[in-house]
Amino acid sequence: MPIERLAHQFEVPASGEKIRLDQFLCSVLPEQSRSQLQDWVRKGCVLVNGKVPAKPGERLRGGESVVVQVPEPEPIVAQAEDLPLDILFEDEELLVLNKAAGMVVHPAVGNWSGTVVNALLHHCEDLSETGGQERPGIVHRLDKETSGCLVVAKTDFSHRALSAQFAGREVRKIYLALALGSFRQNRGIVDAPIGRHPVNRQKMAVLPAGKGRESRTDWRVLGELEFAGTLVTMVQCRLHSGRTHQIRVHMAHIGHGLLGDAVYGRRAGAERQMLHAWQLGFFHPRTEKWLQFTCPFPDDFRAAGVTLDAPMEQDA
Fold it and tell me: Can you give the C-alpha Rg of the chain in angstroms?
C-alpha cells in the first residue's frame, strides 16, 4: 500500500442495482477523473470490505464499505529553462516579477514546462526550498491568465517571513480588472465566503455563512470603455484575503464577471481573463523596509483602451 496522505471512507447504498466500483468512486469523489480513480484501484489504494478489488470494473451489490487511501503525489523535479522574465526587483533574498499572462507559475499536470519556476531555476543559483521541489521560491500564485506582480523567495528565511505577511494580511494587493457591464455605485465591498463549488468541483463559488472561507474584496470604479461592442468597467480591487479565484468569483457574485473569463464571466472577444496584479507591497524580510511595486498595464489592457496613468487611491 502506498504511503497514506488522506483517507476517505464511504458506504455503498443498498439500491438493489449493481454498480461498477469506478462509477461509484466517480460519484463520491467528483473532483477526481475516472482514469485517476481507476489507476488508484489498480495500485491497491482502494479497499472494498477490507480487501483489494480485482479490477476497477468490479460490481458492487450495495452495503459495502469502500476506503480510498489517496497516495502521495509523485514529486515533480522542475527543470531549468531559458525563458524570459520581467524582473522589477532583485536582491539576495527575493525577486519581484511582472508575470506575463498565459504563463503558469509552477509545474503541475498538463504544464510540466514553460512555467515561472522553470525560468527561475535558470535565472537563480538558489531558491527557497520551503515550497518543495515542485514549487521552489513560490510564496503565492497568480492564475495562468492573470498578469502582474509576483514575489519570489530566494531563501527559506524570506519564504517564511513573506508567508507570514500574507497569512497576517500585511501584504498590500491591488488588482485592475475589466468587468462586464456598468456599475450602479462607484465603490463597494464584497464580503462573502468562498469555497469549492458544490456541484462543479473545478470552480469556486460564494457559499452560505459557515460553508466557505471568509473573503473580502474592496472595489472602486475607475471608468468605463467599450471592448468589441461590449460595455466594460475598469475596476480597482484590493484583496483583504487571498482565496482561489477571489476577484473573479466576487465580481461574478455581484453580477459583473470579468471580461475574457470563460469560467465566471464571458470571453466577449477577449483572449484571456482581463485581470492584472497592478500593485504589491510588503515589508522586506531582512531590512523590514516597506517595498511597493507597480506593474505597468500589459499590451492587451492598453489595446482595450486602458490608459489610466493617475495614481490610485491609497484607501481603496
Answer: 23
Does residue 2 carry a pLDDT above 50?
A: no
Active site residue 143: yes
Task: Quote the pLDDT of residue 104.
Answer: 94
The residue length of the chain stands at 316
Q: Helices in 46-195 by DSSP H: which ranges?
A: 116-123, 156-167
Residues 178 and 252 in one domain: yes
d(Cα 129, Cα 122) in Å, to the nearest integer? 16
Average pLDDT of span 295-306: 92
- Choose between 106 and 189: higher pLDDT: 189
- Work out the percent of the chain whose per-residue pLDDT is above 70: 93
State the average pLDDT for the chain. 89
The rounded distance, in Å, linking the Cα atoms of 118 and 164 is 25
Number of H helices, E strands in the chain: 6, 16
- Domain total of the chain: 3
Residue in the block written with cell 473580502: 216
In a domain, 150, yes or no: yes
Grid coordinates 507591497 are at which residue? 281
Q: Tell me the residue range of the domain where 50 lies.
A: 4-71
Indicate which residue of 86, 126, 143, 299 is catalytic.
Answer: 143
Structure letter (DSSP) for residue 118: H
Q: 273 and 180, same structural domain?
A: yes
In a domain, 273, yes or no: yes
Task: Give yes or no: residues 84 and 156 share one domain.
Answer: yes
**Amino acid sitting at position 234:** M
User: 123-182: per-residue pLDDT in tens?
Assistant: 998 899 887 777 899 999 999 999 999 999 999 999 999 999 999 999 999 999 999 999
Closest-CA residue to 280 (of 149, 153, 159): 149
